[in-house]
UniProtKB/TrEMBL annotation:
PROSITE patterns: U_BOX (PS51698)
An example Gene Ontology biological process: protein ubiquitination
Residue ranges of the TM segments: none
UniProt domain U-box: residue ranges: 16-90
GO molecular function, one term: ubiquitin protein ligase activity
This protein's name: U-box domain-containing protein
The EC number(s) this enzyme carries: 2.3.2.27
Record organism: Gossypium gossypioides (Mexican cotton)
Length: 416
């Protein structure tokens, strides 16, 4: 056939892979072979990428793709699996049977059933649970579900079926897997009853429900541009207490900590309500859990610490915690440039307010850390904070530090 590419067998560790088992695009062994309207077969991921980049022709025949439906080639997949089993001695592992993408017709039916208020409770609950399973399976499934106005349907169920908590919490579990647009965020954040409901769900008996509620709050806060709306959300009764309790809970696992830190940071971006975070115990909780966080969330936690250090009650709370200053000093140059910048900023605020914090910082080795920092490739903002902090701590330097310390001797800091 004109335009058809013949792929020769690939030699892999002394084993020839039949050419018709290989994707014509990637030349790799196909894991999920699908056939397009021209009759050619490709690995699903390869042909989906081909189409996603704007191509509208068959890669092999160059004929136009009149239909972008990809039909699973079950026969070829079974032949490839059998071949893998026969060649296990060559280190070939059997390719697992792939999960098929969600059928759009089925997704539409499930959404219709889930939203049918007149339907019995159990079929609606089953439909939501099936949607949750599909959404968890793959990005492709989430894309299919989202294309059927699922977010609007789910928002309605979450807040209209609060009397039936099971329906509400299942819909919430599905909803948090999608990114809301601005109008959807505003429809939630501008309704005090909806905000109060989410705040109340932060104290649910199930940790999963609490996490999902926190996740939706963070989604809404991040998705709205209105400062007044963000302030209204952060001012909801006990919202800070609920979020801090998720972080404080020793049974919290990585997802709980990650979402807890994200939503606390989003709440603390609102200046007017930062005092509520302090009252809820956020300073001590952040210090206690900092070592449990991965890089990205540790950065957010340190950014939140710096934000809370900008108010007097926040400073006082951090000063009162014995580990605050040593931990911030230890963090400098250890996690990332951004983390270093936030830690230096927090230390600057604490040492400006407390001579005791100055002495603690010096005892914890902050001078060496700061001198290394100003000579590093970190951000200019971090270097400025380090220089300001060195100047602030000038009276706390040990008397023999400049004369006897190699760190000070090699410093590029201009004497004050």
């Amino acid at each position: 056939m004109p335009g058809t590419t013949i792929v020769e067998p690939l030699d892999l560790v002394g084993l020839q892979i039949p050419y018709h088992f290989r994707c014509p695009i990637s030349l790799e062994l196909m894991r999920d072979p699908v056939t397009v309207c021209t009759g050619q077969t490709y690995d699903r991921s390869s042909i989906e990428s081909w189409v996603a980049t704007g191509n509208t022709t068959c890669p092999v025949t160059r004929a136009p793709l009149s239909d972008f439906t990809f039909i699973p080639n079950h026969t070829l997949r079974r032949l490839i699996q059998d071949w893998c089993v026969e060649n296990q001695a060559f280190g070939i592992q059997r390719i697992p049977t792939p999960k098929q993408p969600a059928d759009p017709v089925m997704v539409r039916a499930l959404l219709t059933q889930a939203s049918a208020v007149s339907s019995p409770f159990q079929p609606r609950l089953s439909a939501l649970r099936r949607l949750k399973g599909l959404a968890r399976d793959s990005d492709k499934n989430r894309s299919v579900i989202s294309s059927h106005d699922a977010r609007e349907v789910l928002i309605d169920i979450v807040f209209s079926d609060t009397g039936s908590s099971e329906l509400s919490v299942e819909a919430l579990a599905v909803l948090v897997m999608f990114q809301l647009n601005e109008s959807e965020c505003e429809s939630i954040g501008s309704d005090p009853n909806r905000v109060v409901y989410l705040s109340r769900m932060l104290f649910h008996s199930s940790i999963e429900v609490r996490i999902n509620s926190a996740s939706l709050i963070e989604n809404v806060l991040s998705g709205t541009r209105s400062p007044d709306l963000r302030a209204q959300i952060s001012n909801a009764d006990e919202i800070f207490e609920g979020v801090v309790d998720i972080l404080r809970n020793l049974n919290s696992y990585p997802r709980a900590l990650r979402i807890g830190v994200r939503v606390l940071f989003a709440l603390c971006l609102v200046k007017q309500t930062r005092h509520k975070a302090v009252q809820a115990g956020a300073p001590a909780t952040l210090i206690d859990r900092l070592a449990d966080l991965d890089k990205c969330e540790a950065e957010r936690a340190l950014a939140t610490i710096e934000l809370l250090c900008r108010i007097p009650s926040g400073c006082s709370a951090f000063v009162a915690h014995a580990l605050t200053v040593p931990l911030l000093v230890k963090t400098i140059l250890k996690i990332s440039d951004r983390a270093t910048e936030y830690a230096a900023g927090a230390l600057m605020a604490l040492c400006s307010e407390s001579e005791g914090s100055q002495r603690e910082a010096v005892s914890a080795g902050v001078l060496t850390q700061l001198l290394l920092l100003v000579q590093s490739d970190c951000t200019e903002r971090a270097k400025r904070k380090a220089q300001m902090l060195l100047k602030l701590l000038r009276d706390s330097w040990p008397e023999d530090s400049i004369g006897n310390s190699d760190d000070f001797a090699c410093s590029e800091i201009v004497p004050f």
